[in-house]
Amino acid sequence: MRGTLRIFRTSKFSVEDLREFIRITLKSYGEVHFLLTDGIVLNFRDIIPQEIMHMVLVQRILTSYQMQKILMDSDRNPYFISVTSSVIETWPSSVVESIYDILKIKTQYHGTIVYLNIVGHGGVFEKYLGNRILLRNNVEDRGGLYSWEEQFQQ
């Protein structure tokens, strides 16, 4: 059973993307994970309705190794991960590749739905994005490699 791995970049964090992810996935799963790094500031009481707040598991990612551990040790519930590009640039490239491999394994073999939102300018993950940018729900193709979900369609 394959899940979905969607890696996309936006210039700023989109609350609408998170709300849509929660709306789609919460019906089928009892809980969803929301992981975010430094540089993303939100008031969750304004974003997540009170009646479902206990079903959205929020965790701040402080280090790349913490993100690896969370992804490896956790359940199969969906993930919405928001990482600023400035934070990713400080991570060793071997760790970034390891995280990408973990995401592929979680989606391919465990059937987990993962949305990875890179917030900010292009950078390390650009080779996985294939230089595509999400612009108001439209994807602008700038060439390069294809994303995981485009390489291995279900």
Can you offer a commentary on this structure?
The structure is a single chain. By secondary structure, the chain is α/β, with parallel strands linked by helices. It has one domain (5-151): P-loop containing nucleotide triphosphate hydrolases (Rossmann fold, 3-Layer(aba) Sandwich). The chain is built from seven helices and seven strands. The strands form two sheets. It has a five-stranded parallel beta sheet. Helix 3 runs parallel beside helix 5. The longest helix is centred in the middle third of the chain and has 18 residues, at 93-110. The radius of gyration is 15 Å and the shape is globular.
**Largest β sheet strand count, sense and barrel closure:** 5 strands, parallel
**Could you state the oligomeric state of the chains shown?**
single chain
Low-pLDDT parts are 131-154
| Physical arrangement of strands within the biggest beta sheet | 1-5-4-2-3
Overall residue-averaged pLDDT value: 79
* Helical residues, percent: 25-40%
Tally of helical runs: 7
Strand residue content: 15-25%
Keywords:
154 residues; alpha/beta; Rossmann fold; five-stranded parallel beta sheet; two-stranded antiparallel ribbon; 7 helices; 36% helix; 25% strand; disordered C terminus
